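Can you give me the bound-state structure? Components:
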Amino acid sequence: MDYHRRLDTELDVLRDRVLVLGGEAEAALGRAMYALAERDSAAAREVLEGDDAIDRLEVEIDRLCIDVLALRQPAARDLRFVISVAKITPILERLADHACNIARVALDLNDEPRLRAFPDLSRMAAVASSMLRAALDAFTRGDAAEARRVIGQDDEIDVMYERLFRDLIGLMVAEPAATPRAARLLFVAKHLERVADYVTDICELTVYMTEAAIIKHSY
Amino acid sequence: MDYHRRLDTELDVLRDRVLVLGGEAEAALGRAMYALAERDSAAAREVLEGDDAIDRLEVEIDRLCIDVLALRQPAARDLRFVISVAKITPILERLADHACNIARVALDLNDEPRLRAFPDLSRMAAVASSMLRAALDAFTRGDAAEARRVIGQDDEIDVMYERLFRDLIGLMVAEPAATPRAARLLFVAKHLERVADYVTDICELTVYMTEAAIIKHSY
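Here's the bound-state model for the whole set.
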């Protein structure tokens, strides 16, 4: 195989592994929110057990990036792609960490009486998941316009977060006995807000990779 | 200048810029905690105003990394150093974001009656700051043993966090009127726990860079 075909094959492998990692992170998030909503502790434990595989995938992608840089010394757009992959993997791994933290909250809460439902929480999770899916798709297709659209959705998340914060504090003040449980849901809301921030970071990298422009910190 | 001297000079510049960024992040964290403890809103606003400079520094370091990779194509340890720098800068930038979030909490709380002091909060901040300083030092010196020692300190942070969580929930249950304020301090504790996690990430990169071993997820 000549240099370019070898490089292209390696870049395809990288792209594929990032998609697998992103898919795992998204599945972990969905499963953790399901465990919370349905009080399903088995699902929560699955999320926690799956985290090792995600960590291994991150390490594998890191190695692939270093190998491509060291052996092929890619230039221009290919170089930016490899750097972007190296930067996206820890984001996806941390995103999966947030899913684990939500799963831990689910395990804690499943032992206690059920709180009233907070529909904004599942709405936030649904928006965050769909943002993540769209962001990964935009990254692999190198679609900067779509990445910019996803960044815009972050405002929705912020609005839902603020409303949840007020509602949960209101519940704690009105029913002190519910405070330990409501505080845990407050953290879930915070985790989901963070997930959306990470998705925004992925989108910024996509724009950077495609346009070689750094939009970060400029909107 | 020949290739090696040019590369060495550029790596020195990178090392220097990372130290400046780390110093700024550490200063922001210290100032935010001071603003919270001393109810000093001017200090809190300084932290928020300083964030732009930190963002610009991150963008500058990213550009330097890409330039070194594209123009000098460093190998082995030098390559790992550049990749580590590219991975450390977003961590430091996010660490400074947490400082900003703490500063925002300080601004919110300074308008309200003072809560009783939670000494664990300043202790957590002091440990997190000293971990950050030691981690940056270990990174620039390539001292893997010191990086491993810093990682070990994360347990202290976790113990303080768990105690704070219990104390603050206890306060909320006992005094519902204090709940909105106590919930904000709960977030400060969470931010500090996150800061320590980021410091651990920096230490893992240091070990990786020095020993080419990936210790992440293996301890």
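A couple of observations. Chain A is about 85% helix and 0% strand. The interface with chain B takes residues 52, 55-56, 58-59, 62-63, 65-66, 69-70, 73, 75-76, 79-80, 83, 86-87, 90, 169, 172-174, 176-177, 179-180, 183, 186-187, 190, 201, 214, 216-217 of chain A (CB under 8 Å).
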